[in-house]
Amino acid sequence: MGPKRSAYRGVCWDKQPGKWKAQIKEPITKRVKHLGLFVIEDEAAQAYDDAERSMRGANAELNFPGPGEKQAKPRTTRTKEEAEAAKLLPKQKSSHRGVTWDAARGKWKVAINPQNGKKSQYLGRFDDEQEAAHAYNLAASELAANPPTDAPMSAAPPIRPPPPANSTSKRQRK
Hints:
alpha+beta, GCC-box Binding Domain, three-stranded antiparallel β-sheet, 4 helices, 8 strands, 26% helix, extended
């Protein structure tokens, strides 16, 4: 039997125990939290929904939304053969800053470097190169409007003017 794929967000097949595994990524730490193993796929999806509701509240995207709740985007999965075929395609190069081709997934990947010593910020993957470039431009304009700083300007030390050219240093006086 081939690998099982779930259509639900936060659910995957765990081969070792032969059960459905529910997991969720914590929004702040970005760590994956294990929610349990389930015989029934729908139970694993429900466990994900419960964790999603508790972590994100009204912003939760759920597999089984109630009235007034958001539906999770349908999961798109590629077979192993499709992924291998995408790797064989000639490398595509974007003419846009921050946009690269992800051959393994067959999508355009976008990341931006905030220029403040922190690592680059992942912005997502897109089917269309123009959409990817637009996402980069939005993030770049947001960074330009709100440049990242380590300290507020009022807390920054005052800038001292350079010493006059005719002044002598302590070494020259001796």
